[in-house]
Design goal:
By secondary structure, the chain is of the alpha+beta class. It has 6 helices and 12 strands. Bound molecules: zinc ion.
């Protein structure tokens, strides 16, 4: 499942080819992904210029000249393949399921194809079909049913100690469970929550409402730092994740705690071993010695 840094990596790659370009035509191989596509999906996109490609949590938003926006989510296994007019090809997203012998666009899981005016083709493939696409008025994006309950963006100025004081006040749940609550902060998933807490030296088990101001400031800077570094590295390579230039991301090699059960803590001077526990049905990795 791609997390925010991986989605941002895909956004950067798509923005390069889509922004300022016009969608000439859209071909559909089926009428639904996770949800049914709008009935007039192709007609509402054809002829529209893509004015910008932004991100809200893990949703990609292509703002169109028509005043509508195309909202896209990669789900568990979504991938965009960009085929340039000169034959160059780039893969953006989950590369694991890509069959080597298929020609792009002809695969069983190639569901949507965007033909751009300059000859570029963008193919959306999604073997598990947990991804989604929808079209919604740009002025009402905050009101879309999938995004309206999402919390603040972790890389925006909205995330600060003051916000967290209010958001965490009285919360008895473990800190890690609250950190992945998308209604508070949108886009922090399981992997990066573990990494963030390690960096902030906070135990995933401590009561969320017990954090003091100094802790909250550390938490804010850890969230920003971990996500920004992961974006810079091109997302993780957990599942052969392909970055904007088609190369695998590099962040995985730098995980401090995630998937490192039993291995020595990477913090200088700490002699602890990484422990794995299960919280809300998901694995949490942390160092019991230096995270309190
Ligand atoms: Zn440690």
């Amino acid at each position: 499942m791609p997390e925010l840094p991986e989605v941002e990596t895909v956004r950067l790659g798509l923005a390069r080819v889509m922004t300022g370009n016009r969608i000439a035509a859209v071909k559909l191989r089926r009428s639904d992904l996770r949800f049914p596509l709008p009935e007039d999906f192709s007609a509402r996109l054809a002829g529209q210029e893509v004015q910008s490609l932004t991100r809200r949590a893990k949703y990609l938003v292509a703002s169109l000249s028509s005043g509508e926006s195309l909202i896209m989510h990669l789900g568990m296994s979504g991938r965009f393949t960009v085929l340039h007019a000169d034959g160059r090809m780039k893969s953006l997203g989950d590369a694991e399921m890509q069959a080597q012998d298929e020609s792009p666009g002809a695969g069983l899981h190639d569901h949507v194809m965007f033909q751009l005016e300059d000859g570029t083709r963008i193919i959306y493939s999604d073997p598990r079909r947990f991804g989604m696409m929808d079209i919604h008025p740009t002025h009402d994006l905050a009101g879309h049913w999938l995004t309206q309950r999402l919390g603040i963006e972790p890389l925006s100025r909205d995330l600060n100690a003051k916000y967290l004081v209010q958001a965490l006040r009285g919360r008895k749940a473990p800190l890690k469970s609250v950190l992945v609550d998308q209604r508070l902060i949108a886009g922090i998933g399981n992997i990066y929550a573990c990494e963030v807490l390690f960096r902030a030296r906070l135990s995933p088990r401590r009561t969320a409402g017990s954090l003091e101001n100094l802790h909250l400031q550390k938490l804010v800077s850890a969230i920003r730092g971990v996500l920004k570094e992961a974006i810079k590295a091109g997302g993780s390579t957990l599942r052969d994740y392909a970055g904007a230039d088609g190369s695998p991301g590099a962040f995985q090699h730098r995980f401090s705690v995630y998937d490192r059960e039993g291995q020595p803590c990477r913090r200088r001077g700490c002699t602890g071993k990484i422990r794995r526990i299960v919280q809300s049905g998901r694995s949490t990795f942390y160092c019991p010695k230096c995270q309190h």
